[in-house]
Amino acid sequence: MIYNYSNKKILILGMGLTGISCINFFLKQGVKPKIIDESKHPVLLEKIPKNIEYRLGTLNHKWILESDLIIISPGISSFIPILVHARSLGIEIISDIELFSRETNIPIISITGTNGKSTVSKMVEKIAKKSGYKALLGGNIGIPALEMLDEKADLYILELSSFQLENIFMLKSKIAVVLNISEDHINRYPKGFKQYQETKLSIYEKAEICIIHVKHQVKSNIYNKNFKKWITFGGKKSDYQVYCNKKNAILCHNNKKIFELKKTSLYGYHNYENALVALAISDMMKFPRNCVIDVIKNFSSLPHRFQVIHKAKGIEWINDSKSTNVNSTQVALNSLNITGTIRLLLGGDRKSANFSILKNNFEKLKIKIYCFGKDGEYLSKICKKKSIYVNTLTQAMQLIKKEVVSGDTVLLSPGCSSLDQFSSFEERGDLFTKITKEIIS
């Protein structure tokens, strides 16, 4: 189907990188859209071409109800009243990913999950390139999807958040995978976790090959849908498995050993499972196994994702600032096997998530929890005898400096959004790294 936007009134919501990419896309088509941003002073305002009309400060504008087509940026909720009303009037609301998917017939690998999607996406990109493909990575990581249309490619890899999946209808992936689903962004979804879960699983709707975590088979009614092919991971009886013992972890396919992970720098079961999914995707794409193994063997953790930033004098310092939900903190804690004290930095905006699931971990572990930020006081009450509340990450690190001893691990795995005190999780992780270097010097 060829889409013609020339006679439509087009409105873009959000003036971030996604919004700018949408403006550029339509201008190349000879179409002049309008754009609105909630902020009165958007950072990228100077990137807006002078001939584009814009409004700032609120989304509640008559332009919305006058539009034929609205492109919504992922940072804007699909459930705000004026957009719900617009849909009831038959106004089409889509994401930039939907726009992108309408414009290409090149194979797409679509990857989502509460945790791990960036790591798997980068692994697959490296494997594809090593296998001789001109592969481009975009979406929630790398460049906005629409910008990839400007380059020649054999393969697109899309990392997709639930926010991006809310307004996708025609995404026909060659391969789609949901790595995991755990409680996150509950404040975004009016119907709570179930709606978040359904949004994630919608990635499978038009996929050719579905790679499915065994935990999600029943929840997604995956076998009741007419998919061409599906394969499973994450269980002893699945198609792809990770076998672990105290000394090693092994990637397996149909119980056949493929690769020993002790030969890599990967750390923690979550990363072993990430490598497993990269293997499964690669097999479905028929990438050479030697390329797959070589990339996994030499793959280093991405910044801010359970990244060991220093290890000396018997103390390990781990930057897991990308931990923005409770499950990611739980995974990080389960990945540690130490005799000393875990000094956990926990805090930020919990996004209405239930952190009581950590109580059992806290009670079993030799741990001290330094809670900070918007919901730090709430978090400190989960396990009062092992917790302390301070206002900022810097104050928490000052306490740790006085208390840390050989054998301890200092773990920044906040489990919360950083936006209460930082511009991003990267800024939060950079501050942790900076203070760590000051302490160890």
From TrEMBL:
InterPro entries assigned to the protein according to its UniProt record, in alphabetical order: Mur-like_cat_sf, Mur_ligase_C, Mur_ligase_C_dom_sf, Mur_ligase_cen, MurD
**Reaction equations catalysed:** UDP-N-acetyl-alpha-D-muramoyl-L-alanine + D-glutamate + ATP = UDP-N-acetyl-alpha-D-muramoyl-L-alanyl-D-glutamate + ADP + phosphate + H(+)
One GO process term, biological-process aspect:
cell division
Q: Which Gene3D superfamilies match?
A: Mur ligase, C-terminal domain (3.90.190.20), Mur-like, catalytic domain (3.40.1190.10), NAD(P)-binding Rossmann-like Domain (3.40.50.720)
EC category name? ligase
- Record's GO cellular component, any one? cytoplasm
Q: Where is the Mur ligase C-terminal domain?
A: 304-414
Any one GO molecular-function label of the UniProt entry: UDP-N-acetylmuramoylalanine-D-glutamate ligase activity
Q: Say if the entry is tagged with keyword Cell division.
A: yes
Q: Which residues form the signal peptide?
A: none
Binding of ATP occurs at G113, T114, N115, G116, K117, S118, T119
Name the source's superkingdom.
Answer: Bacteria
The enzyme's E.C. designation: 6.3.2.9
Q: What's this protein's family per the entry? A: Belongs to the MurCDEF family.
Which PANTHER family would you find in this protein's record? UDP-N-ACETYLMURAMOYLALANINE--D-GLUTAMATE LIGASE (PTHR43692:SF1)
- Function noted in UniProt: Cell wall formation. Catalyzes the addition of glutamate to the nucleotide precursor UDP-N-acetylmuramoyl-L-alanine (UMA).
Q: Give the protein's recorded name.
A: UDP-N-acetylmuramoylalanine--D-glutamate ligase
The record lists the organism as Buchnera aphidicola
Q: Show the taxonomic lineage.
A: Bacteria, Pseudomonadati, Pseudomonadota, Gammaproteobacteria, Enterobacterales
